[in-house]
Amino acid sequence: MIRTGALHRWRGVVFALPGLWVLAVVVREHLSPLAAQLVPFLAATLALACAGHLTGRRGRRLADELERTKEIALTAQRALLRPLPPRLDGIALAGGHLSADEGVLVGGDLYDVQSTPHGVRIIMGDVRGHGLPALGTVAALLGSFRDAAHDEGELADVLRRLERAFHRHLRDRARAEQPAAGDALPAHRTADTEEFATVLLLEVREHGEVMALNCGHPWPHRLAGIPDGARTAALAPCEPLPPLGMFPLPADVPLLALTRLLPGDGLVLHTDGAEDARDAHGEFFPFAGALAEAARGTAPAPAAVVARVQDALLRHTGGLLSDDFALLALRNDRERVPAQRPCAPLVRSCLRP
Fold first, then answer.
1. Residue 238: strand, helix, or coil
2. For 16-40, what is each residue's pLDDT tens digit?
3. What are the angstrom distances between the C-alpha of 58 and each of 4, 20, 55, 210?
4. Which of 198, 200, 190, 127 is nearest to 158 (CA)?
5. What secondary structure, in 3-state letters, does 255-307 show?
6. Would you say 204 and 155 are in contact if contact means Cβ atoms under 8 Å apart?
7. 55: how many CB neighbours lie within 10 A of its CB?
8. Which is a Pfam family this sequence falls into (predicted)?
9. Average pLDDT over residues 67-86
10. Which H or E element spans position 152?
11. CA pair distance 78, 327, nearest whole angstrom
């Protein structure tokens, strides 16, 4: 019979393994191929060494090692999906993520915000699947966005960089899985692929104008600041582009003028894990209603909105999630500026299907 203490130590090893694998994925995306190949081996070796100590007499030392391993795993996962600063270039921010896999902080959902010379740029995305298998794709997309958001003057060029990074990641992974295929693998996957990612890109400009590009992702909700709280409205300006990976991007990617955020107004971005979540009776989570309830009160902070929606989702599902869920809330806290003269339109209003 396994003693209770030993059982708890076994559980510690089991739940440390996802974190170790996350560490391997993060490093793999940033190291040379030769060094990257060593990371999974080292992670597996460390896990086996921990398991081997379970039968020894150094229980306390093992417990300390497991705690350090968990800390490393958490640090690696937070390096992939970094905590957002509370404020960036006059925009108040908060993000939250719930994983469907126990012991994993990061799944198939992704988000990030960057302050750039071109405005505050935001990505919200959802890689097919969840948990550990999706982490490599998440790392590839986030790494590409963090560079392209600063380097590219046009938001459409940021999206093209993401598309190239996505296909490059899939080709590299396919070559690792099928070395004999070599260069015979196609440069782009076609519509029958099982690999795709939805991506929403936003750019908040100096006076609150929000530009958008959407590849198959849910549109955000707008929070209009009013004296006694906020008024929510779902934005659905047009049909988005297909998700990345299903079809190549068109030669002309039209930029959409999504909305304008006045001081005190906000946006809430989310993944479809909220709308698809069900309770024990099969009832879908009422995301729009939960968001409206979360926005009640006087000028609710983005962090409060995120926390309230997450709590409502966990209550609805009883804590049992079938998919990852990510939520990002932002609010324009910049000073009110004088009305600007209208400029000549530089963007198209929408992509027509």
1. coil
2. 555 555 555 555 554 444 344 444 4
3. 16, 22, 9, 58
4. 200
5. CEEEEECCCCCEEEEECCCCCCCECCCCCECCHHHHHHHHCCCCCCCHHHHHH
6. no
7. 7
8. SpoIIE
9. 75
10. none
11. 16
The H-or-E segment that residue 216 falls in is: none
Element (H, E) at 180: none
Q: What is the mean pLDDT of residues 303-326?
A: 91
- The structure tokens listed for 144 are 């590409």
Per-chain mean pLDDT for the chain: 78
Contact 223, 265 (CB under 8 A): yes
Domain spanning 82-332, CATH class? alpha beta
The closest of 206, 307, 316 to 261, measured between CA atoms, is 206
Tell me the HSE value of 51 on the side-chain side, using a 13 A CA sphere: 12
How is residue 22 written in tokens?
């996350």
Strand intervals (E) in the chain: 87-88, 91-98, 109-116, 119-127, 197-204, 209-215, 221-226, 229-234, 256-260, 266-270, 325-332
Tokens of 57: 């007499």
166, 244 Cβ separation under 8 angstroms: yes
Sheet hosting strand 229-234, strand order edge to edge: 87-88, 91-98, 325-332, 266-270, 221-226, 229-234
Residue ranges of the domains in the chain? 4-78, 82-332
Q: Tokens standing for 280?
A: 């024990």
Structure tokens that stand for 208 in this block = 């609150």
**For residue 268, how many C-alpha atoms fall within 13 Å in the half-sphere facing its CB?**
32
- Which residues make Cβ contacts (< 8 Å) with residue 264, sequence separation at least 6? 225, 299, 331, 332, 333
Q: Tokens standing for 343? A: 């400029």
Residue 109 has pLDDT above 80, yes or no: yes
Cα torsion 125, 131, 136, 139: sign:
positive
- Cβ within 8 Å of residue 101, ≥6 positions away: 18, 107, 130, 131, 132
The model carries a pTM of 0.75
Taking residue 321's Cβ as centre, other Cβ atoms within 10 Å add up to: 21
> For the chain, how many residues are written?
353
Q: Rounded distance, CA 11 to CA 157, Å?
A: 46
